């Protein structure tokens, strides 16, 4: 019933065409390498904007570069309550973050949609993980509405955090790489990556326990052939817990701002790619191809990791072609195949 109120809205294809279709002539004549770089930057920015965190990362990045974050001068003799808790001008941070995240979300998300789902829609076998499956109009609309709602929720929360950090609020982030020694600085890069990957795997796997799946995570698995807009289309509680695990290191352990921002941009970039539905090989030896997470949406309770295969290999939860998976088969190990299922799945060539 809720979605019917939005039926007057144009489809995502027409919105994307209206927003970015005129840039097609520039893309057509853009050198291949430049196009890849531009697409990568677009994906990274979109990933951070989808969660509303981009202003927090910007504040950390500016401080890392030694650029003072501007703040207005108070004309009051006594600081207000908001100033006393490090939230001076918080309303501007929230407003700017929500407005800019919304613009980035629709413009860059529309660009990605246009490049593949419109420009190459007639040839899905050349680029799509599931070439014979597209989201219905209702599911497209649902993911945009739900994703936008979470994006605005995140933008509000991280607008507050951005304000707090820019006003000198407490964090454990440091800016001189040598402050804790170069060994600590270098080791913090793989350790932070390992923490983020472990937190994502175990939290995600918990969401596939029957109770949490049926009451929370099932919202996200409505999109069996995900697009970039699916990345934040999930239950708000699930979204907030994910964000908590991502940003908490900046408040509990010493971490260099450049390392923190760099790792998060990496996570956001691949979070967008993995949900894009676009079949791309792994660029790094530890990073799974996009097909890996697309199969998670296709087969449900399997392939729980995001940025490495470490934990899926350790727990034996990588999808196997000789096992049957469905929404009703929990546990991450699948079940034995029937003879008919073996014949059907033998025709699929989906490996990692």
From TrEMBL:
Keywords: Membrane, Transmembrane, Transmembrane helix. The keyword NAD does not apply. InterPro entries: Fatty_acid_hydroxylase, Sterol_Desaturase_Related. One of its GO terms (cellular component) is endoplasmic reticulum membrane. It is found in: Membrane. The chain crosses the membrane at residues 26-47, 93-118, 182-204, 251-270. One of its GO terms (biological process) is sterol biosynthetic process. It comes from the Eukaryota. The keyword Coiled coil does not apply. One of its GO terms (molecular function) is C-4 methylsterol oxidase activity. Residues 191-317 form the Fatty acid hydroxylase domain. PANTHER family: STEROL DESATURASE. This is Fatty acid hydroxylase domain-containing protein.
């Amino acid at each position: 019933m809720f979605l019917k109120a939005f039926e007057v809205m144009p489809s995502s294809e027409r919105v994307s065409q209206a927003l970015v279709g005129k840039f097609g002539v520039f893309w057509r004549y853009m050198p291949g390498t430049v196009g890849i770089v531009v697409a990568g930057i677009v994906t990274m920015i979109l990933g951070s904007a989808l969660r509303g965190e981009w202003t927090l990362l910007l504040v950390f990045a500016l401080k890392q570069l030694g650029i003072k974050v501007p703040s207005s001068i108070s004309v009051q003799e006594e600081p207000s309550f908001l100033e006393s808790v490090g939230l001076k001008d918080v309303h501007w941070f929230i407003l700017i973050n929500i407005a800019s995240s919304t613009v980035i979300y629709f413009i860059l998300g529309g660009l990605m949609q246009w490049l593949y789902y419109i420009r190459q829609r007639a040839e899905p076998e050349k680029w799509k993980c599931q070439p014979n499956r597209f989201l219905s109009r209702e599911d497209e609309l649902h993911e945009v509405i739900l994703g936008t709602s979470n994006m605005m929720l995140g933008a509000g929360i991280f607008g507050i955090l951005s304000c707090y950090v820019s006003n000198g609020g407490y964090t454990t982030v440091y800016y001189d790489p040598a402050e804790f020694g170069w060994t600590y600085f270098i080791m913090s890069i793989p350790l932070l990556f390992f923490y983020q990957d472990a937190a994502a795997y175990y939290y995600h796997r918990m969401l596939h326990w029957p109770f949490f799946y049926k009451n929370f995570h099932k919202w996200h698995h409505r999109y069996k052939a995900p697009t970039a807009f699916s990345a934040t289309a999930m239950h708000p509680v699930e979204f907030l817990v994910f964000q908590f695990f991502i940003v908490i290191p900046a408040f509990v352990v010493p971490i260099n701002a450049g390392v923190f921002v760099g790792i998060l941009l990496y996570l956001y970039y691949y979070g967008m790619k993995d949900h894009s539905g676009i079949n791309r090989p792994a660029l790094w030896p530890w990073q799974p191809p996009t097909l890996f997470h697309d199969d998670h949406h296709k087969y449900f309770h399997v392939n729980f990791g995001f940025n490495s295969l470490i934990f899926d290999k350790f727990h034996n939860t990588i999808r196997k072609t000789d096992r049957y998976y469905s929404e009703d088969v929990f546990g991450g190990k699948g079940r034995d195949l029937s003879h008919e299922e073996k014949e059907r799945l033998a025709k699929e060539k989906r490996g990692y």
